[in-house]
Amino acid sequence: MKRISYIFLVVALLGVSCKKDFLQRTPATAITGNDFFNTTADLETYTNGLYTQQLRAIWADVEAADKFSDNISIYTGSSEVDNLIRGGVTPGNTKGWDQGTWGMLRNINFMLDNVGKTTGDQVVINHYIGVARFFRANFYFNMVKRYGDVPWYSRVLGNKEEDMLQKAKDPRTAVMDSIMADLEYAAANVLPARTNNTYVTKWGALTLLARVALHEGTYRKYHNELGLESSAQTFLQRAVSASQEIMDNGGFQITGTGAAGYRALFESNDLSANKEVIFLQKNNKEQGVANNTHVVLDWQWALSSSLANEFLMTDGTPFTSQAGYETKTFVNLFTNRDPRLAETIMTPGFVTTPGGNPYLTRPNFGGYLQVKFYPRDPALRGGWVLNYTDLPIFRYAEVLLTNVEAKAESGTLNQGDIDATINKLRTRVGMPALDLAAANGTPDAYLAGKYPLVTGANKGVILEIRRERRVELACEGFRLDDLYRWKAGSLLAQNPGGMYVPALGGLDVTGDGVADIAILQSKDDESPIAGLPADVKEKIVKYYLSDGAFILSNGTSGTVMFAKDVAQPRNFVEPKYYYFPIPASQVMLSNKKLTQPAGWE
Question: Is the overall model pTM greater than 0.85, yes or no?
């Protein structure tokens, strides 16, 4: 069903200038705690409004979910993280900590403050309390990821509570304990299938609980500057038990076979009965609910060679162990590779309409265009925000990857665990199984170079789990959080790059042996394509290095790189850039009780 976006949740966000107003403000409509929240129907109505407001906080816009990470070669839109690693973020110009931020919390707490007067079936009441606490936990999870320590507010504040309105931040440990308490309540009280998988269920609550526990457990393990390593194991063990409960009792499974089975999760118009989907955004033309997934192909970004390199060969060996892998051309990149590569990055000869001409890649974006989430059926592509594919928010594959990583990081992993998790994902697409002893016996040198903090007996398998997670969940919004919790933010400072260009001149990018595009130095020198047949030159699409959008790493050949990375070099400052600063104006409003995260003082 289509949810209604209730006005009171919007009006309450208007006309407010600072955090303290938001934490106090009563919704500026007729709905108050005195005449609402009397029945379970009231709770359903209110929580339906929370979905509309909170879903984006759970999952980034799918059409640009990984735009802040090294999975992307270049992003031409506005990116906070891109601005950060180029030195452009300061307390004076940063965003957040404002009315849009704290208003979400205030709306959740308003319900929780008033639910004590609701009459009806207590099981149903507890269900809706659990939904609200699920959303509050996710709100604070995002705040901790962004700022570290933050003030915890469990209720709407009164006008006279100035001391609470201007309180200092609570420590990360206390806030995370409160987040976990909210999620434990949600997992225990939200019903297993209150309606359908477009709503939060017990299994959705457990999925978020497992996600949060894995994040915090690995964050504490690798971020030794926090001094919290001794408590990492507690979170890792809870990630294991929460994910294991879903695996044992949730009734979910990895669905489909081959590349088509994987693709179906991201371009289908109906995932409501899919046994891999735990929580989804339902889109429907008749109800006017849609997404913008057609823009993934080449609107403002493309994917990186860094991502492409991690997909294995079909025999299970690393692509990066192949001789000359760095100089594989676009048409050769996909030969004998994990089928998920071709379901993530556009292949030579890809067509957007059956029977149409091949779509040409764009070297000015790096050349690796995204096809994951692109609606293959033209009937599901109606235009700007008029696409009607369902979007999985939580899916079972994440649960399996959470389970296997938490076990590996906590030192309890065995081959049976791998077979029950990663190897189910590999089996779907016909890839060889991961062997624990082999992985630990010979850790992959390419991955070891990316993640030098991974050590110990499980080094090899942890590296392979990270590979599998990156491949399976590519473009779903996990990568940046993963880099941060693994203390691998320095990878953001590396230029991710695009496809390899052997020389200036014509390039075949459709696989038919005929040049489709040409990369040239300038319009004044087209000699590299002078020998092409006239009909080929007539159709060829030309790109000029002199236009300044991109360069080749070796001048007239090499990997596609970007002029922006030369003009504004990337840099990742440890540990400062794992957090964003609080806006200076908000620090002043708190009478300087708020302090900046580490490095931003």
Answer: yes
